[in-house]
Amino acid sequence: MDRSSLLQLIQEQQLDPENTGFIGADTFTGLVHSHELPLDPAKLDMLVALAQSNERGQVCYQELVDLISSKRSSSFKRAIANGQRALPREGLLDEPGLGVYKRFVRYVAYEILPREVDRHWYFYRHRSCPPPVFMASVTLAQIIVFLCYGARLNKWVLQTYHPEYMKSPLVYHPGHRARAWRFLTYMFMHVGLEQLGFNALLQLMIGVPLEMVHGLLRISLLYLAGVLAGSLTVSITDMRAPVVGGSGGVYALCSAHLANVVMNWAGMRCPYKLLRMVLALVCMSSEVGRAVWLRFSPPLPASGPQPSFMAHLAGAVVGVSMGLTILRSYEERLRDQCGWWVVLLAYGTFLLFAIFWNIFAYDLLGAHIPPPP
């Protein structure tokens, strides 16, 4: 059913004869059933929740128009949040006769979204096109680059100890700070198979579901913001060290998701969430510990400092700040969120400080950086 035909029917039936701006939920539901209108079940459920946000059991006409038009404004979501939410808590879990892909969509809804109304909305509105191409493309590119350098250097673990590795135009090295692209392209290089495997696994297990729910633009922005913050933080706090690996972006995604789970603990319906939270924290902490060990106690002779671990921590900070704001604004415009502008201001201030630091601080402080390869 298109929007115009339904709204025309509403006007013909005179559901609001006194022009109050409100429509009775029971009246509208009866209209839908009597005319056998193919309205999504999720939208009918949301209509009930909207009605319960009003003490008279009515729905604002504009909210009804937004619902039919698949729009979700901030006022729409506030009305849902203030309602009693008579949506069935296990509705999607009990949905029968689903294909493999729709079961995966249902799994993603329960993994990522903390509210039942949002899960229904996502489940019924999700389309397989466009697919989550960003995280898959980044992961594929990282694997291809690793295989190319592994075959070229004949080394698959601890590649950074090979003298030719640091000559790559993708690696961030403090001696090549003027080549600005390196602040981002280092994410395609990895220390070895162990780091690549860890990052690729998290990107696919967490990044892909996040991209399916929140979209390519938001998740790519969060990932790249973590990557950029990682290299810039290293250039400030560990001035002699290079950086490789996509850990800044990975930790931005993971920390944002974990923080969102913690802040919405009661609403998250993913199974074994406490056990999975503990395992995720242990794995992430172990990866940081491994990076610290390689930085300060290299197991093999090296021609220069080994990659820094500060990118991991910077990515986590970006995830808890920017990432959490994004994940808590599902289907809402970020520009309408005051917290989003605060986060952008803080991130922009950090970028400006880091740029001036890289231009002036190395010479003013007399930093002894290793010669660029």
UniProtKB/TrEMBL annotation:
Main location: membrane
GO molecular function ontology, one term from the record: serine-type endopeptidase activity
Similarity field: Belongs to the peptidase S54 family.
Organism listed in the record: Myotis myotis (Greater mouse-eared bat)
One GO term of the biological process aspect: proteolysis
Keywords, sorted A to Z: Hydrolase, Membrane, Protease, Serine protease, Transmembrane, Transmembrane helix
EC number: 3.4.21.105
Localization per Swiss-Prot or TrEMBL: Membrane
Organism superkingdom: Eukaryota
Protein name: Rhomboid-related protein 1
Enzyme class: hydrolase
Pfam families: Rhomboid
Taxonomic classification: Eukaryota, Metazoa, Chordata, Craniata, Vertebrata
Membrane topology: Multi-pass membrane protein
Catalytic activity: Cleaves type-1 transmembrane domains using a catalytic dyad composed of serine and histidine that are contributed by different transmembrane domains
Cited InterPro entries: EF-hand-dom_pair, Peptidase_S54_rhomboid_dom, Peptidase_S54_rhomboid_met, Rhomboid-like_sf, Rhomboid_IM_Serine_Proteases
